[in-house]
User: Which sequence fits this backbone?
């Protein structure tokens, strides 16, 4: 079975920033994000997946920002020490010729979801998605798993069904009913995760919940009626978007063809990534050694 790894690059950047103490190079500039991100990428590449892609968030405001000005407005401003390292990370990724995609107006999870939709039905293909976004769990299947970038936790289809008790595609309806603190999305007031879980398990969709309000208690019905607009708008914002330019993207474009010339080695030397050199050498050996033929 062949494998494709799809990476939400932003999740790995934040994980490196918060998990790794400052590391200073010879110019006394913090390079902990570059170091941490590179280590995580190299370790994944050591598994030698057949296909690999990093998705980046749009450098400009997204379609969701256009529709909802408060989208992600509660997030802290990125520290300059963090922000300044992102171009260095992308420089190293491009130097290694690792496939990576940015789509203006779209978020990384829109890119990942479009690619998953493209490839999920290819026979003999296993998809491993690395993200902390819950909305991508809607794609869980026998051949698709989600690896939480921040919690380092893997979720399979079976894991999801045991936790939620409904099919993965209903996660959008569940999230529409509760407050998404990460994205600052409105929700139905006073309906927490437990009540939302019960509603989705019974009625499946936001639309169907509102079609059966007469079956609910007066208090619950009143809450849902009061925040009906928020519930439907939240679901609209949460739904992942298709990136048109990627809809027909050939999976072979995401084949790993790492370029082991002197460029990335120089980058590693320049940034004083001494502990990365061993992993880099293992990676180079893995991807450049001749294939062994066994005779029986």
Assistant:
């Amino acid at each position: 079975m062949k494998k494709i790894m799809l990476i939400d690059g932003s999740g790995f950047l934040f994980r490196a920033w918060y998990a790794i103490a400052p590391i200073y190079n010879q110019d006394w500039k913090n390079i902990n994000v570059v170091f941490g991100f590179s280590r995580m990428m190299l370790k994944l590449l050591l598994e030698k997946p057949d296909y690999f892609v990093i998705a980046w968030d749009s450098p400009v405001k997204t379609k969701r920002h256009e529709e909802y000005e408060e989208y992600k407005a509660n997030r802290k401003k990125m520290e300059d020490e963090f922000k300044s390292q992102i171009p260095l990370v992308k420089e190293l990724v491009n130097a290694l010729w690792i496939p990576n995609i940015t789509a203006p107006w779209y978020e990384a999870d829109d890119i990942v979801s479009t690619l998953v939709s493209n490839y999920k039905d290819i026979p003999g293909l296993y998809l491993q998605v690395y993200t902390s976004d819950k909305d991508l769990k809607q794609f869980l299947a026998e051949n698709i798993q989600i690896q939480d970038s921040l919690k380092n936790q893997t979720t399979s289809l079976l894991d999801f069904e045991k936790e939620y008790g409904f099919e993965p595609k209903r996660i959008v309806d569940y999230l529409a009913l509760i407050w998404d603190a990460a994205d600052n999305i409105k929700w139905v007031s006073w309906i927490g995760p437990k009540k939302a879980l019960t509603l989705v398990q019974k009625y499946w969709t936001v639309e169907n919940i509102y079609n059966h309000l007469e079956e609910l208690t007066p208090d619950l019905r009143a809450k849902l009626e009061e925040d009906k607009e928020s519930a439907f708008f939240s679901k609209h914002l949460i739904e992942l978007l298709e990136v048109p330019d990627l809809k027909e993207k050939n999976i072979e474009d995401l084949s790993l063809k790492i370029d082991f010339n002197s460029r990335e080695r120089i980058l590693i030397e320049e940034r004083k990534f001494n502990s990365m050199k061993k992993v880099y050498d293992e990676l180079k050996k893995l991807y450049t050694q001749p294939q062994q033929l066994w005779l029986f």
